[in-house]
Design brief:
The protein is an alpha/beta fold. It has a domain of about 150 residues: Rossmann fold (3-Layer(aba) Sandwich). It contains nine helices and eight strands. The chain has a five-stranded parallel sheet with strand order 2-3-1-4-8, sandwiched between helices. It binds adenosine-5'-diphosphate and zinc ion. Adenosine-5'-diphosphate (ADP) binds next to helix 2 and helix 3.
Length: about 210
C-alpha cells in the first residue's frame, strides 16, 4: 500500500474530518500542521508565541519554521511506516523542501464547491481540548458548546471568522493550488469529491479505501 500520503484541498473542504477517519482506517499517524500550531498556541511555547498572530489571522507561518517542525515530526518513530500529512506543503517551496527529506507515495486531493466550502468554514466549531470538529447546523454537538467525545469546551477558531476566511481562500488559490500541477506532473494525485453531506462520510471513506487497496 501507498503509505506516505499528502492530503491537499482548500481550507474548509473537510480534510481534517476525513484524515482523522483515514488515520484509524489505515493505521497511519495524522500529522496536521494546523493542529500542531494550535497546540503550540495553547501551550504558549516559543514557537506558539512566534506564530500566534499569523495563525489567528489566517496567514502562512514562514516556510523555514513549518518545514523544520514537519521534518522533526516525520523523523519520529511512529512515522517509520508512513503518514497522512495534512496542511503541509502549502506552497511550492515547502513541497520542494519536503522532497529533499522524504519520498511521497501519493497525494489525496479533496474537492468541493466553493459554496460548500464557505458554509463549512463559517459554521465550523472545534473542541478546545481534543480538536474534534463540529458544525452549527450540519454536525452540532449533542449539548450546546460541549464536545460529545471528551466534554471539552467548543469554540470558533479565530481564523474561521468571516474577515479571515477571505484571506485564507485567497492564499490557498495563489500559493497552494499550484501544488496540484506540481504533483500532477509526478502522477501522484487522486481526487476525492466531498460535496456530499456529513452522513455520507463512510461512503466516501470506502471509495478512498478502494483506491488505495493495492
Ligand atoms: P485550514 O483549515 O485553513 O486548512 P489549518 O488548520 O491547516 O487550516 O492551519 C491553520 C493555520 O496554521 C494556517 O492558516 C497557517 O497560519 C498555519 N499553517 C498550517 N500549516 C502551514 C503551512 N504548511 N505553512 C504555513 N502556515 C501553516
Ligand atoms: Zn473534545
Amino acid at each position: 500500500m501507498k503509505k506516505k500520503i499528502i492530503i491537499l484541498g482548500s481550507p474548509g473542504v473537510g480534510k481534517g474530518t476525513y484524515t482523522r477517519l483515514l488515520s484509524k482506517e489505515f493505521g497511519l499517524p495524522h500529522i496536521s500542521t494546523g493542529d500542531m500550531f494550535r497546540e503550540h498556541l495553547k501551550k504558549k511555547t516559543e514557537l506558539g508565541k512566534k506564530a500566534k498572530k499569523i495563525v489567528n489571522e489566517g496567514g502562512l507561518v514562514p516556510d523555514e519554521i513549518v518545514s523544520e517542525m514537519v521534518k522533526h515530526r516525520l523523523a519520529q518513530e511512529d512515522c517509520n511506516n508512513g503518514w497522512l500529512l495534512d496542511g503541509y506543503p502549502r506552497n511550492i517551496n515547502q513541497a520542494e523542501t519536503l522532497q529533499s527529506f522524504t519520498k511521497v507515495d501519493s497525494v489525496l486531493r479533496f474537492v468541493a464547491d466553493k459554496k460548500v466550502i464557505i458554509d463549512r468554514l463559517s459554521g465550523r466549531r472545534v473542541c478546545k481540548k481534543c480538536g474534534a470538529t463540529y458544525h452549527v447546523r450540519n454536525v452540532p454537538p449533542k449539548s450546546e458548546g460541549i464536545c460529545d467525545k471528551c466534554g471539552g469546551d467548543i469554540y470558533q477558531r479565530k481564523d474561521d471568522k468571516p474577515e479571515f476566511i477571505k484571506t485564507r481562500l485567497k492564499i490557498y488559490k495563489k500559493q497552494t493550488a499550484p501544488l496540484i500541477s506540481f504533483y500532477q506532473k509526478r502522477d501522484l494525485i487522486t481526487d476525492v469529491n466531498v460535496n456530499s453531506e456529513y452522513e455520507k462520510r463512510y461512503e466516501v471513506l470506502e471509495w478512498i479505501k478502494e483506491k488505495f487497496k493495492d
